[in-house]
Design goal:
Layout (H helix, E strand, L loop, with lengths): L2 E2 L2 H11 L4 E4 L3 E4 L4 H10 L7 E9 L3 E10 L4 E10 L5 E3 L8 H12 L2 E3 L25
Parallel strand pairs: 1-6, 3-6, 7-8
Antiparallel strand pairs: 2-3, 4-5, 5-6
Length: 147
């Protein structure tokens, strides 16, 4: 069975490598500053003791005051997992760096988040709609979306 690593333990490891990257943590999750998300992702994948080589999911939640990106990571070598989150403030053009260069599996998932929530992933190789057609007005999973 996969072991979920403590958010505090993972937060400590990240902060040793990238100062001020961790905003908060709890027993199961680590919140990373959105500006540090790409660097933290590289660290989580390449650190020999963590080895989060597999991105299982990328999703987003609209809390009205902010968007929260949620990354589920897995190490198949050590059979452990962690949930990494990041808050994006501002509704007009929320933007964060793409992690497709770290985990190729983020490609389609970031496109889905862009399509349905309107979060732009800077540096994504092919950021276009995947569920809806080009020209669709808005992003329908946002809480402020009006038909």
């Amino acid at each position: 069975m996969t072991k979920a690593l403590s958010g505090g333990d993972v937060a400590s490891r990240i902060n040793e490598a990238i100062s001020d990257a961790v905003v908060d943590h709890n027993d199961t999750d680590v919140w990373i500053d959105s500006e540090s998300l790409l660097d933290a992702s590289r660290f989580l994948k390449t650190d020999a003791d963590l080895d989060f080589a597999y991105l299982t999911a990328v999703s987003a939640v609209d809390y009205i005051e902010y968007f929260e990106l949620v990354y589920h990571l897995l190490s198949t070598r050590y059979n452990h997992s962690v949930v990494v989150k990041s808050k994006l403030f501002g509704r007009e053009a929320p933007t964060v760096s793409s992690v497709t260069g770290v985990w190729r599996g983020a490609d389609l998932q970031e496109r889905e988040v862009w399509d349905l929530m309107g979060i732009r992933f800077e540096g994504h190789p092919n950021l276009k709609r995947v569920m809806l057609w080009e020209g669709f007005p808005g992003h329908p999973l946002r809480k402020d979306y009006v038909e």
